[in-house]
Write a structure and sequence with these properties.
alpha/beta, 5 helices, disordered N terminus, 259 residues, seven-stranded mixed β-sheet
Length: 259
């Protein structure tokens, strides 16, 4: 698996396996908890800095294992989503949230228009450009984004274990839901624990739907992917599941597992 990085000096976006043979382009927008030193931890206490408010724990490990199994390219964010959430458009308030779930983010409060523009230019635009270029160079691209979510939200336990999210194009999501019982006994639900109404399908709407590329967003409950072994096991399962679901769509392109 070849690896390369784009904008490594800036440290804002990572591109792995850019020359992979698969039609799948994997995306992990919330891969990192890194907050550059200049932001002084955004004023967050130490016990919050590795929490789900800051990143998607386990998602990058799953995405990297999945990239190897599928021989697929992977585009990932390299800074915390609290610096800029690359799965949100610049005009969205929660692209640089002052509050994330139940956590206040002091460093994002009262941002000036100039400060917001600077973060958009420095963090979002390179990510957007890298993903756009990778999709453009991929034959019959299929966009698959990888996320994780917390088991408990606002005090309520979430029974869903794997969410299959989509916007107006449900082709791949439908195939995944139809084939799910063959590959997992987990609770698989459509557009849960979030859906398009929550603004979470920006990457799909920006990079896949306009070109009519197959696409789906996968949400994995983070208690299922705590360890590297967990992440590898889930990735191995998703790899064969995705390959089968893709075959069900009868769409051109190359999507299959590799040893």
């Amino acid at each position: 698996m070849t690896q390369s990085k784009i904008d490594a000096v800036e440290g804002v976006v990572q591109l792995d396996n850019a020359d992979g043979s698969s039609s799948i382009v994997l995306v992990c927008e919330h891969a990192s908890a890194h907050i550059p030193a200049e932001f002084d931890h955004l004023g967050l206490p130490e016990n919050v800095r590795q929490s789900h408010a800051v990143w998607d724990p386990g998602a990058m490990g799953v995405a990297q294992h999945l990239a190897r199994r599928l021989d697929a390219a992977l585009v990932a964010g390299a800074v915390s989503r609290l610096i800029y959430d690359c799965n949100r458009p610049p005009e969205a308030e929660d692209a640089m949230p002052a509050r994330s779930e139940v956590i206040d983010v002091p460093g994002n409060m009262a941002l000036s228009p100039e400060q917001r523009r600077e973060r958009i230019k420095r963090y979002y635009e390179p990510f957007k450009r890298t993903l756009h270029e990778q999709i453009a160079k991929t034959q019959a691209p299929v966009v698959v984004t990888i996320h994780s979510f917390t088991p408990v939200f606002h005090g309520a336990f979430r029974s869903v274990e794997i969410g299959i999210l989509h916007d107006v194009d449900a082709r791949l999501a439908d195939a995944l839901i139809d084939t799910a019982p063959k590959y997992t006994s987990a609770s698989v639900q459509r557009n849960q624990p979030y859906g398009p109404e929550n603004g979470v399908t920006h990457t799909l709407k920006e990079h896949a739907i306009p070109g009519e590329h197959l696409n789906v967003m996968l949400e994995i409950r983070n208690d299922l992917i705590k360890t590297e072994a967990d992440q590898r096991e889930i990735a191995d399962m998703i790899a064969v599941w995705l390959s089968d679901a893709f075959a069900q769509t009868k769409t051109e392109g190359r999507v299959k597992c590799v040893a």
